[in-house]
Amino acid sequence: MQQNSTVTEFILLGLTQDPLKQKMVFIIFLVFYLGTVVGNTLIIVTIKFSRTLGSPMYFFLFYLSFSDSCFSTSTAPRLIVDALSKKNIISYNECMTQVFALHLFGCMDVFILIFMAVDRYVAICKPLRYSVIMRRQVCVILIIVAWIGSFLHSTTQIVLALRLPFCGPNLIDHYCCDLQPLLKLACMDTYMINLLLVFNSGAICSSSFVILIISYFVILHSLRNHSAEGRKKALSTCTSHIIVVILSFVPCIFIYARPPTTFPMDKMVTVFYTIGTPFLNPIIYTLRNAEVKNAMKKLWHVKFIMK
Q: Where are the bilayer-spanning segments (predicted)?
């Protein structure tokens, strides 16, 4: 629903206006997006059909891969198509839909990464109670909470976006619709909305990041009481999680947890966490996780033999 606006469409300026660079953008991000979809689909299928990946950690990884695929899909296809278009027009309704999807699946990633940290904490620090605390019903409830929390967050974002009146320029100096670039085009004082954005998205990213880093410090500290083999396995898993957390949260904090100031690197930082991180996550979780690699080999070997 459009309120007090005369603008019915926006023009996305994209990452570059240079024709040669646009072709490079098309090729590079097509490869990235296809890699994201294929990589995350492989993880989803492997976890779904493998008998050895039934633990809560892989239950959450299943949903993280699904969320990553959707998160990348909310921006990457548009960027790829626009790289070959002469005039990158996006309607008002499409723009609002993109804002909603971007924050829905971005917030979903945040929740799942927190739950994965909780799972590792319980597994390492409370091993005798692990099967009771992280039973299947609890994991399902946590995922439902994640969907509800993500929906509420993205609804808040879209309500803020729908309150913005647009009555002048419609050029968005970005490759996707988000609140920050839209605020620059609104014909109203956006100071309070900027504050709400920082307290909403910025606070979620920053507080979640701090909680996750502290939790992993606690986990790593507790490993001193484990055997050498146990430490090695736990360190491998936790290191993968920490890498993903840093790659996901640092760019997010840079974009959302700051005053309304524009920096030249904003577009590339957004590209990194909306397209780059979903591409890297399956690589990190497969290359550093022997169980996932072995399950993939067994699953696809069986599929090949059956054919």
A: 24-45, 57-80, 100-118, 138-162, 191-219, 240-257, 269-287
What one-character DSSP code corresponds to residue 260? Answer: S
Helix (H, G, I), strand (E, B) or coil at 15: coil
Instruction: Tell whether the torsion through CA atoms of 140, 282, 210 and 128 is positive or negative.
Output: positive
Residue 127 lies in domain: 9-306
In a domain, 122, yes or no: yes
In the predicted structure, residue 307 carries a pLDDT above the cut 60: no
Nearest to 223 by CA among 238, 243, 209: 238
In a domain, 4, yes or no: no
- Summarised one tens digit per residue, pLDDT across range 179-205 is 888 888 888 888 888 888 887 888 888
Pairing outcome for strands 171-172 and 89-91: unpaired
Domain tally for the chain? 1
Give the pLDDT confidence score for residue 306 in this predicted structure. 52
Please determine, for residue 231, whether its predicted confidence score (pLDDT) is greater than 80: no
Task: Look up the CATH number of the domain holding residue 102.
Answer: 1.20.1070.10
End-to-end Cα spacing for the chain: 52
pTM of the model: 0.89
Q: Is 3 inside a domain boundary?
A: no
Among 120, 74, 81, residue whose Cα is nearest residue 100 = 74
Closest C-alpha to 254, from 239, 241, 240, 267: 267
Mean pLDDT of the chain: 86
